[in-house]
Amino acid sequence: MDKIQLIIDCDPGVDDALAIILALKHPAIEVLAICSVAGNGHIETTTQNGLKILSLCDREDIPLYQGADTAVSGQRPDTVEAFGDDGLGGYAGSVKTDKRPEKEHAVDFLVRIVKENPKKLTIAAIGPCTNIASAIRKDPTFAGNVKEIVLMGGAKYTGNVSPVAEYNFWADPIAAKEVFKADFSKCVMIGLDVTNKIALDAQCRELLRIFDTRLSRFIYHITKSGMDENWEIRYKMLSPMHDILTIAYLIDEKVVSLKESNIDIVEDGIARGQSVVDIDGHWHGEKCNALYAVDVDVLKFYRLFLTTVFKEHKKEITAYLEQIPGEKER
Ligand code: BDR
Ligand code: CA
Fold first, then answer.
1. Could you report the per-residue pLDDT of 72-97, keeping only the tens digit for each?
2. 40 in ligand 1 pocket by Cβ < 6 Å?
3. What number is the average pLDDT over the span 295-313?
4. Whether the CB of 13 sits within 6 Å of ligand 1
5. Which of 38, 53, 145, 261 has CB atoms 3.0–4.6 Å from 279's, for a disulfide?
6. E-state strands within 52-93
């Protein structure tokens, strides 16, 4: 089977880091490039973190293109605090690299590479949608020439920066709206409704400590800040893993259940960034513009993630997963 030719547009970020690691480690995916965008930190931070993840995984051969530092409106989005000042839970300093970003801007790269490879490339957009919307604005053929775009963003029933808005869509709501209006041949939205369910719990995090490999130690440390914050706010020992679910879905579609939907984004006001998801045909006559993830198979996800990234621990992973009750309540 041909490998998925993937570009990851991201704002690393703890969960972006996890997504990149899974993509780099799975044989079904060929990561062609990483594009950075501001979000979990300003652009210098997210770019540096992207370079560090590549180095950590011994994949400095993969190019990284630096992208937008402001939303398409020109405003600087508020950065996320959950992952600390360095975006990697205070642990960014543990990885050193001399690798530099490419000279070409991420938006120019996206436009160029998609034009050169019509209908061949997949994009995982796991930060604010600014680079993607800018590419759409720059080249009207861009969306039609992308094979598939999978977005981590939005939610039908919840929010994490407001009662109704998820961070990535909230940070650049105009860009998110333009993405859903752009007529991609396949557009998948993986929102908080499902990504909240795969948050890393204390027991699984402990398993990573026991594995004691370079990658497991890294993931163990960077997920601490998310767990601490969740404990302070909700008394839950869970660390967010949102973005990684986009990659798991690309590897095995059955990890999530999808429903045809029509999605629009609120640009401003009290509901800024809200994704309004119509799965019931309320907007009669409107063509569906996306597939919305309604549910996730948590065990399937964990099996995929753990056995891909920690292959050498397959036996322990199987034993651990057998002890987990069928469905985890998050
Ligand atoms: C999203 O916002 C960022 O903090 C995470 O990396 C993820 O992409 C979750 O709302
Ligand atoms: Ca992200």
1. 999 987 777 778 889 999 999 999 99
2. yes
3. 96
4. yes
5. 261
6. 64-66
Cβ–Cβ under 8 Å, residues 51 and 19: no
| CA neighbor of 110 nearest in space, from 7, 243, 250, 246 | 7
Question: Could you tell me which residues come within 8 angstroms of residue 145 by beta carbon, excluding any fewer than 6 positions away?
Answer: 114, 115, 117, 118, 119
Please indicate, yes or no, whether the overall pTM of this predicted structure exceeds 0.90. yes
User: What ligand 1 atom has the least distance to the C-alpha of 195?
Assistant: 9
Q: How far is CA 293 from the centre of its chain?
A: 14
List active site positions.
Answer: 242
Determine which helix (DSSP H) or strand (DSSP E) holds 109, and give its type and residue range.
helix 106-116
Q: What is the pLDDT of residues 128-148, one digit of tens each?
A: 999 999 999 999 999 999 999
CB atoms within 10 A of CB 27: 9
122 phi, psi to nearest 5 deg = -110, 140
Q: What is the mean pLDDT of the chain?
A: 95
Q: Measured from the CB, is residue 229 less than 6 Å from ligand 1? A: no
Q: How far is the CA of 322 from the centre of ligand 2 (A)?
A: 30
pLDDT at 78: 79
Ligand sitting nearest the alpha carbon of 78: 1
Of 7-11, 154-158, 242-246, the range with the lowest mean pLDDT is: 154-158
Residue nearest to atom 10 of ligand 1 (CA): 167
Q: What is the pLDDT at residue 198?
A: 97
Q: Are strands 200-201 and 4-10 parallel, antiparallel or unpaired?
A: unpaired
Distance from the alpha carbon of residue 319 to the mean position of ligand 1, in angstroms: 31
Start-end of H helices in the chain: 14-25, 43-56, 106-116, 130-138, 142-145, 167-171, 173-181, 192-195, 202-211, 214-222, 224-234, 244-251, 298-309, 314-322
294 contacts 258 by C-beta, under 8 angstroms: yes
Residue 282: pLDDT band with limits 50, 70, 90: confident
| Distance in Å, CA 39 to ligand 2 centroid | 7
Average of per-residue pLDDT across 32-44:
96
The reply to whether ligand 1 has any atom less than 6 angstroms from the CB of 242 is yes
Return the pLDDT at 1: 76
